[in-house]
Amino acid sequence: MAIPRLTDTERDEALGKLPGWALSEDGLAIEIELEFGDFNAAFGFMARVALYADKADHHPEWFNVYNKVRIRLTTHDAGGLSRRDVAMAQFIDGIV
Ligand SMILES: C[C@H](O)[C@H](O)[C@H]1CNC2=NC(N)=NC(=O)C2=N1
């Protein structure tokens, strides 16, 4: 079976512990925009997230311009948010 979507209660509880992250307009993802000192720092961050993503087999949707990285986390297999997105957001919060 595919990984289950979070219930609305689980989602709200998780978001409460992830300051800076917001629910997407469609309600299917959590999003954040991060700013770094320069491109080198932004890309170094992305490399660390990429290693996590590869290991966890869970991948961010993201967009980078110079020192900014916009990230959207959702679970395609669940059609919305799952605990994998929360785990990845926690990992990201831990390295910024
Ligand atoms: C086959 C592979 O395990 C799946 O496609 C994984 C890969 N990475 C993924 N990443 C994300 N964000 N959501 C998924 O459902 C997902 N599924």
UniProtKB/TrEMBL annotation:
<dbReference type="Pfam" id="PF01329">
    <property type="entry name" value="Pterin_4a"/>
</dbReference>
<keyword id="KW-0456">Lyase</keyword>
<comment type="similarity">
    <text>Belongs to the pterin-4-alpha-carbinolamine dehydratase family.</text>
</comment>
<protein>
    <recommendedName>
        <fullName>Putative pterin-4-alpha-carbinolamine dehydratase</fullName>
        <ecNumber>4.2.1.96</ecNumber>
    </recommendedName>
</protein>
<dbReference type="InterPro" id="IPR036428">
    <property type="entry name" value="PCD_sf"/>
</dbReference>
<dbReference type="InterPro" id="IPR001533">
    <property type="entry name" value="Pterin_deHydtase"/>
</dbReference>
<dbReference type="GO" id="GO:0008124">
    <property type="term" value="F:4-alpha-hydroxytetrahydrobiopterin dehydratase activity"/>
</dbReference>
